[in-house]
Amino acid sequence: MVSKGITVYSYISVAGYEVEFSVPNGRIINTENDNHSAKDLEVESKNIPGRENYTGRFIWRVLQNSREIANRYNDINSLTGNLEGGNMKSTLEDQSIFIGDVIISYGFYDAGSGKAGLTDKDQCFVTVTANQSTWMGSLAPQGSPAALKPFSRFVLVAPHDDGMDTMQNSDAVIDALDSSNIFKFKDNIPELRWFGDLLPSEVLVHMLPDIVYALAITQKDTITSMLGLGARYFEFRPAFPIPLFTEISHLENKPYFQHACIPGLAYDVFLDQVVAFLDTHVAEIVTFHIRWDNIVSECRHPTTDELDAAMETALNKSKSNGHLKCGTIDCLTQSIDELRNSGKRLICIIEANKYDSWTAEAYATLTAAPIIDRFESMNTLGQESHSLTVLQCQATSQSIKEVLVYSVFAANAATSCLSSTKAMLDQQTLPWIKDNVLTRLQAEKPIVVMNDFIDGATVDVAINLSRARLAL
CB under 8 Å to 333, separation ≥6 — which residues? Predict the structure, then answer.
């Protein structure tokens, strides 16, 4: 008998819903009482019909009052552990499902044999939560006592590296690279040197999509969907591509979200999606924070005039008849209704001083312990000298040499090392934030909860904390 294990996680915050996970001859049904717990299933060859058949189906179903409303599946070979088929074979395609007033977010990690400290069990998470397109308006309705409180009372959800939700622009560059010009990537992305020692340039060019995927893809939903999920804070690193990249490819020479020098979402597309959302959700307020952390020097930063022009272009597309305006960092201390009345519901801050849990050393991990230790080290006094506080839930395990190299050599579109730890970390980081933020971080400053592959569980934690802080 051979088998492949799967660890499953769910989070449910809508009454009447359950999540069922099943494999041949095995089933788990989770309710909201199973939130932040992990359970295991096995695709076992003895339970699969056919003498020479080793492939069994893993499937999750979301049930509303026992009626199925959504499902996804993968066919898993119990002998090799490989995916043989299914509709969760690519992380970027695991996009949230909007059904009425409910959003289902999910993800799947195709585990290898457990090298470099990575799990040998496939991982799957499903969250079932309310559509949070209007959560700010619901918590602090116009004219209510809550809306008279400062905007800084909100706890904001942030997708980590929000512009890395697409391979479209990076693929435009990668497709144009060859062994004569791949040095631009190798010179500017330190992790590529780990592969340069093992592979000739011709092979490295072929493997580059998998390497970029493992290094940089941190989200799977569009900005519009993230906003619908409830995200209200975005850190965006806009910069122009390395000149060579626009010379050899059809990539337009304009600012993109940059991961080192890997181009993600275009800045103008990001702004357009945010403005369109705010046009139709008139009580919501979005903050975005322009930063240039770890962007290579050849990626030119937009000038102030270029940033202003991009904002003006986006706002000119608004259907608010000029009422939607861009605010600055001063807006963080104004009341919620002041911002709504003035139209400053798009707050742009630039390289603000933030009190951040992230450090390179602590977050190069496959476990939650060093991240929780960073949370534990933060306090109200530390907040006071900063404009905002950021609690990051995701690990940066791709910065561990052995983890990244193994993930790439075992690569398919569902083997990113970032997805391997997503659900396991959330199981520990989100309860800590829920239980400790109100007592440990009491300064009158906005708090941001950041995560990879943004989901309803992360959003719920932030909204519930916002409700409590607005009641103070």
Answer: 150, 151, 152, 444
Sheet hosting strand 344-350, strand order edge to edge:
233-236, 286-290, 344-350, 325-327
- Give the whole-number percent of the chain exceeding pLDDT 90: 83
Mean pLDDT of 338-355: 98
Residue 372's Cβ-side half-sphere holds a number of Cα atoms within 13 Å equal to 16
Q: State pLDDT tens for residues 147-167.
A: 999 999 999 999 999 999 999
**Which of 234, 237, 215 lies closest to 223 in space, CA to CA?**
234
Q: Which of 61, 63, 70 is closest to 14 using CA atoms? A: 63
Q: Which residue has the tokens 């904390």?
A: 465
CA quadruple 6, 12, 18, 21: dihedral, nearest 10: -10
* Three-state SS at 440: helix
The whole-angstrom separation of Cα 36 and Cα 28 is: 15
| Spatial CB neighbours of 200, under 8 Å, sequence gap ≥ 6 | 179
pTM attached to this predicted model: 0.96
Do you know the residue count of the chain? 472
349-368 per-position pLDDT tens digit = 999 999 999 999 999 999 99
Q: What is the DSSP string of 157-216?
A: EEETTTT-S-SHHHHHHHTT--TTTTHHHHHH-TTHHHHHTTS-HHHHHHHHHHHHHHHH
Q: Is the pLDDT of residue 186 over 80?
A: no
* Strand ranges inside 351-439, DSSP E: 354-356, 388-392
- Sign of the torsion angle spanned by Cα atoms 317, 322, 328, 332: negative
Quickly count: other Cβ atoms within 10 Å of residue 27's Cβ: 12
Pairing state between β 38-44 and 3-12: antiparallel
Residue 52's SS3 state is: coil
SS3 state at 408: helix
Distance CA 105, CA 88 (A): 12
The two three-digit tokens of residue 67, written as one number: 């009626």
